[in-house]
Amino acid sequence: MRPQPWIFITVTVLAFLFPTFLTEKSDKIIKLPGQPKISFQQYAGYITTDEKQHRALFYYLVEAETEPASKPLVLWLNGGPGCSSIGAGAFCEHGPFKPSGDLLLINEHSWNKEANMLYLESPAGVGFSYSANKSFYTSVNDDITARDNLAFLEKWFTKFPEYRNRDFFITGESYGGHYVPQLAQLIIESNMKFNLKGIAIGNPLLEFNTDFNSRAAFFWSHGLISDSTYEIFTSVCNYSQIRRQIQNGSLNPVCSQVNSQVSREVSRFINSYDVTLDVCLSTVFAQSKMLNKLQDTVEIDVCVEDETAKYLNRKDVLEAFHAQLVGVTEWTVCSGVVQYEMQNLEVPTIHILGSLAKSGIRVLVYSGDQDAVIPLIGTRILVNGLAKELGLKTSVPYRVWLERRQVAGWTQVYGDILSFATIRGASHEAPFSQPKRSLVLFNAFLAGKPLPEA
Fold it and tell me: Which of 82, 364, 374, 425 would staple 200 via disulfide (CB 3.0–4.6 Å)?
């Protein structure tokens, strides 16, 4: 039977009057394979950020479980640089589901309990995001990533105008210590009409020397290295020197000897991303391996099957997600095609946090306290120094915070605009290893309230 003419007229009128009608319908996920029954909507698809270069970023929107129209919008950016916000953030940390074989299991501590979560695969070449012009991959940097992320948001808000006036937060972890504040700064400088309220970054790279050199004190204080090794690790050759030399392709004999001694004492049976765990860890930690890939140490001992990679490479999952593989044969947690300018690791971003705070943007920096990759020691020093530089008085003195009457970490607040918190027992990817405590911290951040105490 031939379609009636009125159908085409109706669709044309709807497309003209409500430009988001057709695009939202096309991006709406009907149901993910193996997904349990849910009460919220999901969307996924592409936003073209560069028409000439045919560059497109892939997103996954998970609406809040209840009353999504009254909940804020939260953008999540994973680190790397070059790792997936969907594979790591959504499916291994705080999204609504976790893959298990052919099924998706409900995550009881999903962040969409309190917010509409927007996961972005960035830059192009990460996850399902792509550039048809492959020369783009040969030299990707922080500036390109921030500008593409801004272009994504501009077009995404046009596609979903109901979110434009919502309270908007940008969150992330690890190398997100670059992605998150740089994007927030660009939003402010560009006078974009986004209702940006705050940023939160976990175990972030903020300042190369301070962050990496705090590793010696962390190893020593946890009994992973001896007094004598701690001495040479801080006086003869420190970790930032080692990283810089390896990055430049020339580790000198002195630093090589120090690095070997540290590695020998720490042993290959300790995972730097959570030094207390004695169980196998999933390849969710591949995103932090990217930050550590130039280090002359052993690989992480992975003995848990990567359910997320298996799931996201299924043909039926790609179809349900409206995703495609462009220029790659499979989806991976961290990109194998993006050649990121690693010198960007040395660009400090701590001062950007200061400018954001002065602009009235709330800033939360948190640390999983068992992470030796970006230890809390350096992060706390940087945040405390920033507070002094800004002249912020302590509004909440350093104290414990609680989750279900147990100590969940420690926190300090400066001038009600800048906050630091640790998550007790958490790894580099805090929501993965401490989901309950991470959700409590997330809720307090969104509400602008101090973390709970006795």
Answer: 364
> Mean pLDDT score of the chain, rounded to an integer?
89
Please tell me the pTM assigned to this model: 0.90
**Tally of domains in the chain:** 1
Q: At what angle do helices 5-17 and 20-27 cross, to 10 degrees?
A: 100
Residue 7 lies in a domain: yes
Is 13 inside any structural domain?
Answer: yes
Extended beta strands in 80-187, E state:
97-100, 103-106, 116-121, 130-131, 168-173
The three-state secondary structure class of 438 is helix
**Quick one: pLDDT at residue 278?**
59
Whether 174 is catalytic is: yes
Structure confidence by residue, pLDDT tens digits, 182-218: 999 999 999 888 999 999 999 999 999 999 999 999 9
Strands 55-62 and 42-50: antiparallel
In a domain, 8, yes or no: yes
Calculate mean pLDDT across residues 131-151: 96
Task: Identify whether 54 is a catalytic site residue.
Answer: no
Phi-psi region of 39 (alpha: psi -120 to 50; beta: other; left: phi over 0): alpha
Residues 282, 371, 427, 438: which is the catalytic one?
371
Domain that holds residue 4: 1-25
| Catalytic annotation present for 211 | no
Q: Which residue has the tokens 């926190």?
A: 411
